[in-house]
């Protein structure tokens, strides 16, 4: 029996719209996938943005959504009507993971994952990616991996070694829960402070997943507590 091909999802890169618009769209040859090259010379296959839906337009089977995140505007393009296009409404704040594309010299996003989120996440993403001068992109796709099928490990899957516990391993969610408890003086831990002090990549995604699973909850705007 022939082995089944091992298809691996590439990690997405957290970005703001401005960085997508300022990047160069590179069209490759020999069936290699196209990609976005950022001004920091990072190759991005999948973008991860949090945006506000401004308007919707339908052109035959194509549905376009114009979105904004405070740094710029870009279009989400769906090539067929589906459940996602019917659910999205003007005014929604959504997490989008998709491929950057180019048509007639205009960049757009072809979404693969669409998830409505609390509007506060738009502010948190902006603070995380724009407010810090130390911000650097995390490149999920190294050049030497372009020609191989080597898997890109997501930070959500990594185990973190906690030296304070004698080398015992903590999962990312456990590491975040520990930090929240340390920052919580009784009224909850500020999400902004958790993002600033966390040493993990994709802390924002880990927090969102913990909120969805019920491991933590928002006891007041901008604050979280561990159950």
Describe, in plain words, how this protein is organized in 3D.
The chain has 227 residues and is α+β, with helices and mostly antiparallel strands. The protein has two domains: 107 residues, Nucleic acid-binding proteins (OB fold (Dihydrolipoamide Acetyltransferase, E2P)), CATH 2.40.50.140; 67 residues. The chain is 23% helix and 32% strand. The N terminus is likely disordered. The termini are far apart. It has six helices and 14 strands.
Task: Write the topology of this structure.
Blueprint: E1 13-14, H1 17-22, E2 24-26, E3 35-37, E4 43-44, E5 47-59, E6 62-68, E7 73-78, H2 83-87, E8 93-103, E9 106-116, H3 120-130, E10 160-161, E11 169-170, H4 172-183, E12 189-190, H5 191-197, H6 203-213, E13 216-220, E14 223-226
Parallel strand pairs: 1-5, 7-9
Antiparallel strand pairs: 2-3, 3-4, 5-6, 5-8, 6-7, 8-9, 10-11, 12-14, 13-14
Widest beta sheet: strand line-up? 5-6-7-9-8
Compute the separation of the termini in Å.
Answer: 48 Å
Share of helix among residues? 10-25%
| Outline | globular
User: What is the level-2 CATH architecture name of the largest domain?
Assistant: Beta Barrel
Largest sheet: 5 strands, mixed, barrel
Which residue ranges are poorly predicted, with pLDDT under 50 across at least 5 consecutive positions?
Answer: 1-9, 131-167
CATH fold name of the largest domain, please? Answer: OB fold (Dihydrolipoamide Acetyltransferase, E2P)
The overall pLDDT average reads: 77
Structural class: alpha+beta
